[in-house]
Amino acid sequence: MTALRYMGWITGCSVLTAFVSIIWQAFIALQTLNRTTVLLTGLLAIEGSLKRTALEPAPKVAIGYGACTDLQINATEFLDRYYGRRIPVAAATTGSRAVVNNEDELLQSFAYYFQNGAAAERVMANSTLFTQLVGYAKVMDKERINWYMGGNAPLMAVRFFMEGAQVLLGAHMSRKLRPLLPKEIRLAGDEIPNDDIHLILEYKAGDKWGPYVAPRANRYILHNDRNNPHLRAVEQLTDALKMYQPQLLVVSGLQMMDMFTFKSGEREARLQQVQRQLTSQPQGTLNHFEMASYVELQLLQQLRHFVLPYVDSLGMNEQELSNLQQVLAHGRTTLATDWNPRIAHTLDQMRQVFISLLEDYEDRSSSDAKRRSISRIHVHTLAYQAILTTAGSKWKNTRAAAAKAALTAHRYVCKSQFINPEAVLQVLDDSFATSAQADAPRMRIGAASPVPCWREYIQYGRHRQRLEVEICVAPVLVCREARKTAGAGDNISASGLAAQL
Ligand SMILES: *[C@@H]1O[C@H](CO)[C@@H](O)[C@H](O)[C@H]1NC(C)=O
Ligand SMILES: *[C@@H]1O[C@H](CO)[C@@H](O)[C@H](O)[C@H]1NC(C)=O
Ligand SMILES: CC(=O)N[C@H]1CO[C@H](CO)[C@@H](O)[C@@H]1O
Fold it and tell me: Which residue windows are transmembrane per the record (predicted)?
């Protein structure tokens, strides 16, 4: 009898516990949803403050260089169809080469990156084979191939246009590609018979090719560019700029200048043209350089010489930041790093890059009056946007620019203009340290400040000068189900820049 009563009591207890736990779970879920809604409302309100009045003139932006058509196909379907029985061993030794010369090398290279789910962009040195592959891709079911306008410069140009700017783009384009660009965007460049094509082999997580299974969705890009590496439109853009006089000049697409395309000294000569363009801008024009994934150390060192000293602003993601920081500090490159770095770590790397560039300026500006002192760095990651600007510089609205970039990131990756709080993943905590150094202050992200901003002093140089900077960090409402990731950086960087003019 007592035992039974005892049992009943235990059952009652477990029911109660389960009940409390369900309520608790619901409470937590509701709180998370509530927090997302609060952050979203905050970000949208800050974005709303950016609306230009009808009286304000549209900002003028110029951007180089190059354009291409992206031909997107299903990787496994394409390879099964044309190379069904030729599946190679995936090994780093044969797979990680920078240039692909023939079919065997292509298959080895693809297998290696596919198996690791890593993004890759490779040069196909054999143009006969490249033309053949594009031909194969065109033969594939018309429904399943997709042509898009590609290249950093045109994608950023469209984004600037959508943000209400007047835009001048430096690029050669064919008659087929030009209609894909809004007609209001002015073009400095020639009409060419054929655009460079980028063959984009896309795969999803779990896609199979022979014995290999892709661990995550990604893309393998193959190109054989004739125009883009040579930055053929630079001179025409320089000429057009004399009359146009923009508030902002953006340089992008230099990662296409792979060494295999050039004879000795040729690449330096092209980069000198970029330098000439940057140094011929009046002080009233802000120069921005959009980083990209650079693997070749020599090219990075050339950028440090010809490009970085002449820009006011830099845009990049967390991988590119680590890489640049290593090159500036130690003269070496790094490979893939943490895809979701702590805010404190990213901010410290941003400060290091900023200090390196300020010190270069301090050492050399007396002998080269065209040099510019860096005043802005924007780093975009999956989970947040961080923008550092010199206090009192020409860059306006740093907080709103970070909010805008965060919203663009969400809209791009979710492929939706409408933001649904339930489709969002919270990656950031409520607060973060502003540096990995001991006793660094902490900032809160919440209803009161969805985008925390603060000022601090940066010390640099032999005489330990102090420079006041403003830093803003905006949380990205990360999409639960990513729909599109490649190319997000162009949209994000351009929307952040547009907000600061
Ligand atoms: C280039 O590709 C073609 C077509 O596949 C092939 O016949 C030729 O041998 C390749 N050339 C080199 C140098 O690998
Ligand atoms: C490619 O096609 C295969 C089968 O036809 C499919 O399983 C796979 O998910 C497709 N991949 C992409 C990226 O569409
Ligand atoms: C989300 C978003 O803003 N996406 C845009 C990115 O840029 C392209 C043009 O380059 C637009 O078509 C997208 O709508």
Answer: 6-30
